[in-house]
Amino acid sequence: MIDLGNHQELLSRIQAQDVRAVARVISALENDAEFARDFIAVLSPLHEKKPRLGITGSPGVGKSMLVSHLVRQLREEDKRVGVVAVDPTSPFSGGAILGDRIRMLDVQNDPNVYIRSLGSRGSLGGLSAATANIVRVLEVSGVDFVLIETVGMGQTGFDIVDIADTVALVLSPESGDGVQTMKAGVMEVADIYVVNKADRPGADGLITEILSLLGMLDGQTQWRPPVLKMSALEGTGVGQLLESFVEHQTFLAEHGLSEAKRRRQIVNEIRFIVESRIKRLVLGEEEYLAKLDDLAKKVQRRELDTYGAAGVLIGMIVNSLEDDGIHEET
Ligand SMILES: Nc1nc2c(ncn2[C@@H]2O[C@H](COP(=O)(O)OP(=O)(O)OP(=O)(O)O)[C@@H](O)[C@H]2O)c(=O)[nH]1
Ligand SMILES: [Mg+2]
Q: Which pTM value belongs to this model?
């Protein structure tokens, strides 16, 4: 039996690469906020971040197939690899459903590859705070490299850019996601563009489109995101992605940007934890959203204005803080 109450012992087992302990802890991190808080406090002093590459893009563009190539390549370099695939809870997707995405990775029987699929808790593309913790657990368990697959950006305010060192945005000529139709903000976060399914017509046109858009964005940053052309199906062009990852890391380090970038990520993570805890303090996440909806109705009916509605929620937070005696904590 794995005792979830004994954090030190759990941590030792994870460090000893006990996959059952890793699996149990990851599930607990996903489902139990209190466990997460206590366990991460024990883990953090021993945690060291490893290289993290985020792979994002619309459903069905070929992210998982690309990930399995990357895993194979990293294994050839004798690296242990952790893969986290964040599935939208929404049933609609151009690719496979939960289990199938993982089954697609033919690398899953290798003990040096740990693959985990996570739900994204309702928000298409957004990440739960658990994702960051799960990546930490994998890193403590001795993986040398982490790959994180997500579908686009969500509305949670906590995203792949808050976890990965480098984000690769995968597009495909046949998914109809021309650059014009990309959600605002999605193009800008990419450090590397990948035009997949180059075996299909339209790849060169898409590359031209991306390059001209990048021309317009030019000047905001010194890093010029490369636009890579590949076919995950045929396995062509895949090797360039890890090369571009290393180039991006070198760029950040040489320009003194790595630490600042990581700090911004941690700022966002803390902010996300605070907001989630406050919501939970009031009512629990679901009820909080329902309450918000209620208040919005009142605003629509002109029984309340927006500031008044915010005041109601703040009042509830203050009350529950007082009930919990939390205001007395330092
Ligand atoms: N022709 C062609 N098909 C590809 C290529 N890469 C992936 N596919 C196919 O596209 C489909 C989706 O591939 P996945 O790797 O599951 O795509 P995904 O982006 O992970 O999908 P989701 O996880 O559902 O968002 C599969 O049927 C793949 O065989 C490619 O380079 N060329
Ligand atoms: Mg996938």
A: 0.85
Question: Which residue stretches of the chain have pLDDT < 70?
Answer: 88-108, 120-126, 153-157, 175-186, 217-221, 282-283, 285, 323-330
| Cβ of 96 below 6 Å from ligand 1 | yes
Beta carbon of 60 within 6 Å of any ligand 1 atom? yes
Residue 71 and residue 24 in one domain:
no
> What are 162-189's pLDDT values in tens digits?
999 999 999 999 766 666 656 556 677 8
Amino acid present at 255: H
Residue 272 domain-assigned (yes or no): no
Count CB-CB contacts under 10 A for residue 274: 10
Q: Are residues 95 and 232 in the same domain?
A: yes
Do 24 and 105 share a domain, yes or no? no
63 lines ligand 1 (CB under 6 A): yes
Q: Is 238 in the pocket of ligand 1 (CB under 6 A)?
A: no
| Ligand 1, pocket-test mutation among 58, 61, 68, most atoms within 8 A of CB | 61
The b/e string for 104-139 (b: 16+ C-beta within 10 A; e otherwise) is: bbebeeeebbbbbebebbbbbbbbbbbbbbbbbbbb
Task: Answer yes or no: do 76 and 54 share one domain.
Answer: yes
Coil, strand or helix: which one is 89? coil
Regarding whether 58 and 39 lie in a shared domain, the answer is no
Q: Whose CA is nearest to atom 28 of ligand 1?
A: 62
Within a domain: 268: no
Q: Is 168 inside any structural domain?
A: yes
pLDDT in tens, 259-307: 999 999 999 899 888 887 777 776 676 777 788 899 999 999 999 999 9
For residues 207 and 303, state if they share a domain.
Answer: no
How many residues would you count in the chain? Answer: 330
Q: Is the CB of 88 under 6 A from ligand 1?
A: no
**Cα R_g (the chain), whole angstroms:** 21
The domain in which residue 319 lies consists of: 283-328
Q: How many domains does the chain have?
A: 3
